[in-house]
Write a structure and sequence with these properties.
Layout lengths: L1 E5 L4 H12 L3 E8 L17 H14 L3 E5 L1 H17 L6 H20 L4 E3 L4 E6 L2 E6 L8 H4 L4 H5 L1 E2 L8 H10 L21 H9 L4 E4 L5 E5 L26 E6 L4 E5 L5 E12 L24 E4 L7 E8 L4 E10 L6 E6 L2 E12 L6
Parallel strand pairs: 1-2, 1-4, 2-3, 4-7, 8-11
Antiparallel strand pairs: 5-6, 8-9, 10-11, 12-15, 12-17, 13-14, 13-16, 14-15, 16-17
Helix pairs in contact: 1-2, 1-7, 3-4
Protein name: tRNA-specific 2-thiouridylase MnmA
GO biological process, one term: methylation
InterPro entries: MnmA-like (IPR004506), MnmA-like_C (IPR046885), MnmA-like_central (IPR046884), MnmA-like_central_sf (IPR023382), Rossmann-like_a/b/a_fold (IPR014729)
Length: 378
């Protein structure tokens, strides 16, 4: 099989490509250059897309003896990921740029180009599994749940699922991957992981948004509308945030305040007690349902002993490394889904990804529109 392997320059993609070669595939490597100024895209372990990464990717390809190319996708990345990130914050939402990148760049753009060039599949170093089920391919959590990335891959469509190879889905730990990289002489075994938002390498998201959107002073208010302080831009805040609120006046009960919502129409940030963050009902749109043979039927009884590997139970995950929460109610149309959770969850924001699982199998992905306590729907 002709396979196009995405080499980021890190240890995971290098080992994934090596496994694809070892499996007997005809592998060609490609490095996706996502930044127009790559020399500024790495600070310590932060970020990716640096010149160092492209050099490391080329070295890994040379070690493996496979062809290597660099694709300049900076324009596509700017348009579909960075611009969307800014626009979503401007709308008062909390986007997940990694999901967006995987949807439009690392899979859709990569898969379309691979297909046009005659490749049968693409190979990446993501930690998740694609396995053949009774009714076709299934996307599953990785064996190593601490590294599992099925959450950010759930946005893939059925066609992409049929044309992707994920060789690291069965590994037991990142340590095992590093040891394998060293044994293969790939030269990236001790390279640190990238983290945070790759296009904000200094980690200052507020400063990045302020530079793009400017300052827009407004009020910080409590749920009753009482003014507690001011802010420099509602887009610098996200639901659940506790630090950096800049409020001198303490709450009446002396407990911390948290961001409950941002209101672009009035340029306000609403803060309140932690109890007001707790929700049990979520509505989401832009629904992608991956499992054609499982339409999300919910168990009538949920046992407290059920773990996330119970293949009968329905679960919802709303953060990349968040806990899977049992789902006790689900209603959906072709584009939207509404779920009721089996327990209260705090700090869920519009714009975040909702991923629905049956045990460890991914059923669907949607973008959260809003979250409430049951009975509070407007």
């Amino acid at each position: 099989m002709r396979v196009l392997a995405a080499l980021s320059g890190g240890v995971d993609s290098a080992v994934a490509a090596a496994r694809a070669v070892e499996a007997g595939h005809d592998v060609t490597a490609v490095h996706m250059a996502l930044s127009s100024s790559p020399q500024s895209c790495r600070m310590g372990a932060r970020g990716c897309c640096s010149l160092e990464d492209s050099v490391d990717a080329a070295r890994a390809a040379e070690t493996l003896g496979i062809p290597y190319y660099v694709w300049d996708l900076a324009e596509e990345f700017e348009e579909t990921v960075i611009n969307d990130f800014v626009e979503q914050y401007q709308l008062g939402r909390t986007p997940n740029p990694c999901v967006r990148c995987n949807e439009f760049v690392k899979f859709r753009e990569l898969a379309e180009r691979a297909k046009a060039l005659g490749f049968d599949a693409v190979c990446t170093g993501h930690y998740a599994r694609v396995e053949e089920g009774p009714n076709g391919k299934q996307l599953l959590r990785a064996r190593d749940l601490l590294k599992d990335q099925s959450y950010v891959l759930a946005v893939m469509g059925e066609e992409e699922l049929d044309r992707v190879i994920l060789p690291l889905g069965d590994v037991t730990s990142k340590t095992a991957v590093r040891e394998e990289a060293e044994a293969r002489g790939l030269g990236v075994s001790n390279k640190p992981d990238s983290y945070d938002i790759c296009f904000i390498p200094d980690g200052d998201t507020q400063g990045f948004l302020r530079a793009r959107l400017g300052e827009n002073t407004g009020n910080i208010v409590d749920p009753d509308g009482n003014v507690l302080g001011t802010h420099r831009g509602y887009f610098e805040y996200t639901v659940g945030q506790r630090k950096g609120l800049g409020i001198d006046r303490p709450a009446e009960d002396g407990k911390p305040r948290y961001v409950l919502e941002t209101r672009p129409s009035t340029n306000e940030v609403v803060v309140g007690s932690a109890t007001l963050l707790s929700i049990d009902t979520v509505r989401a749109n832009e629904l992608t349902w991956l499992a054609t043979d499982d339409q999300g039927e919910v168990l009538t009884e949920i046992s407290q002993e059920m773990g996330t590997d119970d293949d009968q139970c329905l679960y919802a995950q709303m953060r990349a490394h968040g806990r899977a929460i049992p789902v006790v109610g689900l209603e959906k149309t072709t584009e939207t889904v509404k779920i009721r959770l089996g327990e209260m969850v705090r700090g869920i924001a519009a714009g975040q990804s909702l991923v629905i699982y049956r045990g460890n199998r991914v059923l669907a992905h949607a973008v959260i529109e809003f979250a409430r306590r049951e009975g509070e729907w407007k």
